[in-house]
Amino acid sequence: MASIFSRIAAGEIPSYKVAENDRYFAFLDINPMAPGHTLVIPKKETDYLFDLDAEEYAGLMEFAREVALKIKRAIPCKRVGVAVLGMEVPHAHIHLVPLQTEADMDFRKPKLSLPAEEMADIAQAIANA
Ligand code: 5GP
User: Fold this and answer.
1) Which of 25, 38, 77, 80 has the most Cβ atoms closer than 10 angstroms to its Cβ?
2) What contacts 74, CB < 8 A, 6 or more positions away?
3) pTM higher than the cut 0.90
């Protein structure tokens, strides 16, 4: 069965999309650590990031870099933090989180739940940046 992230990339499950090309997809984390928290995935389903072949991995990292630059332009922040966990969803993904302080990337903190309209506005701002 397709992972939830494959179904998001295929448009079967709605998401707040921020960027896409033929191989990769970026969308807002549904429960962000900070507004603008984005997930970047390969469309080809692989559980563990470091099981991607070298070319797919390099392509994902370059796509994530482009998305991070968009986040930095759209969301006031000092840096865009990068993390890989994969403890919850078995489809390789990179977290990109706009940071004001180190504490913005503490995965133990309660996550945010933002109104749909705010999520849509954030996604659009990143997509257009
Ligand atoms: P991880 O697998 O890296 O430990 O965590 C998975 C992340 O995906 C979490 O931050 C969670 O909020 C996010 N997430 C889980 N399910 C969905 C979903 O259906 N849609 C979106 N946009 N994010 C999700």
Assistant:
1) 38
2) 36, 122, 125, 126, 128, 129
3) yes
